[in-house]
Amino acid sequence: MSLSSAGPSPQEGSSTCPGTPEGTTPAAGGPPTCAGVAPELVRSVLERIGDKWSVIVICRLGPEPRRFNELRRLVDGITQRMLTATLRGLERDGLVTRSVFPTVPLRVEYALTDSGRTLLDVVQALVGWAGANAETVHVARTEFDRRAREQPQPVGAG
User: Which parts of the sequence are annotated with region: Disordered (predicted)?
Assistant: First the structure.
């Protein structure tokens, strides 16, 4: 798909990607443009799904609705307070629904919304990429850290 088929072309000298300095456009052959999407909106969404727990919770909710304690067992290391906050944030953003069933005791289930399920596809691709590239990233970090240790520090630094 060419960039021109993605919609109207941006005006000359306008920013088309969140985080791109004003008055610039992405390099030719770079990532697709994000014209028409406010950078603040993109950042706020990425803050939600980029936090420590949201991606894991989304993955655990993928197959089926889950009760709170079941989710807590499935998300190793999360506290009750953090799971509550994560679920509330995901619910606020329209990615998760909370259903209360009038039983004794009350039964509460969490499930992905349609929007949450489309995000699950993206998250699963990201998780797959991370798994496939973990060794490459580890080697790059090790090499970077080695070079950083070997470089002489400027006078007055550190």
Answer: 1-32
- Residue 4 domain-assigned (yes or no): no
At 135-152, the pLDDT tens digits run: 999 999 999 999 998 887
How many distinct structural domains can be found in the chain? 1
d(CA 110, CA 74): 13
Q: Where are the alpha helices (DSSP H) in the chain?
A: 39-49, 54-61, 68-74, 80-92, 114-150
Q: Which residues of 100-130 are buried (b: 16+ CB within 10 A; e: fewer)?
A: eeeeeeeeebbebbeebeebbeebeeeeeee
Chain centre distance of CA 152: 37
pTM of the model: 0.67
Please check whether residue 44 lies inside any domain of the structure: yes
Rounded to an integer, what is the distance from CA 124 to the centroid of its chain? 11
The rounded distance, in Å, linking the Cα atoms of 138 and 144 is 10
The residues, ordered by sequence, that sit 6+ positions from 20 with a Cβ below 8 Å of its Cβ are: 26
* Per-residue pLDDT tens over the stretch 57-80: 999 999 999 999 999 999 999 999
What domain range includes position 99? 38-147
